[in-house]
Amino acid sequence: MKKVLASAFIFTFIFGSAQISEFQRADSRYERKKTALYNKYPKPNDLKTKKEWLLTEEKIAAYKDALDKASLEDQKMIAADPPVKTKVTKEAEYDKGKTAFQKALYEAVDLGFLNFSPDAYKATITFVVDSKGNALDPNVKGNNEDVNAFIEAAFYRIKDKGKWKPAEDKGKSVSSNVSIPLVLTFKK
């Protein structure tokens, strides 16, 4: 059993690093292509605007693809340790507190390239904290599917920057669902 848990931990660590590198590759590819576009079309024009939007759509698609792969892997871990359906005696907790988690998530969300800047973006993030404290499979519900995807990507970027204490039921660690409301404001 210990070998299985150790293997799962190593796999999770390696896969977690792979998830982040997928987002970094998408970012790097976008910046490289954007720089080339700006060099080719230094002045604003319709063609430049259209090509820039296509680059943005390409980056969004790359992020969504990486999120789909991450979700599939997370679902395997959740299937092995499904969340309890009943009320737990103690909710899962972020070691630095819920506000610190929200702040870290907010700081990791990068939407500058979208020119997205409403006064406030309200959403809810739901995910599983398994019985070992792994935060898995984020799902963001908000009004903009693309913004939601970048919040989910931010979740993967910060998931190893703090620890979750699993929920408890009658003194035993259990897997549970966590839901956190978010109100994000972005710099214009």
Keywords:
188 residues, alpha+beta, three-stranded antiparallel β-sheet, two-stranded antiparallel ribbon, 4 helices, 7 strands, 19% strand, elongated, disordered N terminus
**Rg of Cα set:** 19 Å
Helix content class: 40-55%
Instruction: Please state how the strands of the largest beta sheet are arranged side by side.
Output: 3-2-7
Mean pLDDT across residues: 86
Could you give a short account of the major beta sheet?
A: 3 strands, antiparallel
End-to-end Cα distance, whole Å, is 52 Å
- Structural class of the helices, strands and pairings? alpha+beta
Q: Categorize the overall geometry.
A: elongated
- Beta content comes to 15-25%
The quaternary state of the protein chains shown equals single chain
Contiguous runs where pLDDT drops below 50 for at least 5 residues: 1-17
Order of helices and strands: HHEHEEHEEEE
Total number of helices: 4
The number of distinct β-strands equals 7
